[in-house]
Amino acid sequence: MAVEPLTDQEIQRRLEQLPGWSFADDRLFRTYVFKGHPQAAGLVAEIATIQEELDHHSDLTLGYNKVGVTVNTHSVGGKVTALDFELAGRIEEIAPQHGARAD
Ligand SMILES: C[C@H](O)[C@H](O)[C@H]1CNC2=NC(N)=NC(=O)C2=N1
């Protein structure tokens, strides 16, 4: 299946199902906050596993108690595609298990 950039309208529609995520500059992003560093690092490790499974990888930033996730699809020139929403949705499913809360 060829992956194609989503229209702005489609991106906005899908974002309504992903509270906490934003779209700007051709990427999806969100920040999670944790009780401490081990919890934040634990989420990053589990995201890495999911990314290998999907063969789709975000840019992750790990701070003391924060994790930043940014994703778009390189193969279509750095636009947002359904693959980015699939990864974001998978991350949303597991983040609460690490005690993540909104920034
Ligand atoms: C060869 C490999 O399948 C590609 O490089 C994959 C890996 N992960 C990727 N991740 C993201 N975010 N965009 C891509 O286009 C992409 N392509």
Automatic annotation (TrEMBL):
Molecular functions per Gene Ontology: 4-alpha-hydroxytetrahydrobiopterin dehydratase activity
InterPro entries (UniProt xref): PCD_sf, Pterin_deHydtase
Signal peptide (UniProt feature, chain positions): none
Catalyzed reactions per annotation: (4aS,6R)-4a-hydroxy-L-erythro-5,6,7,8-tetrahydrobiopterin = (6R)-L-erythro-6,7-dihydrobiopterin + H2O
Record SUPFAM superfamilies: PCD-like
Pfam families: Pterin_4a (PF01329)
Keyword annotations: Lyase
Coiled-coil features, chain-numbered ranges: none
Xref: NCBIfam families: PRK00823.1-2 (NF002017)
Protein name: Putative pterin-4-alpha-carbinolamine dehydratase
Organism for this UniProt entry: Streptomyces rugosispiralis
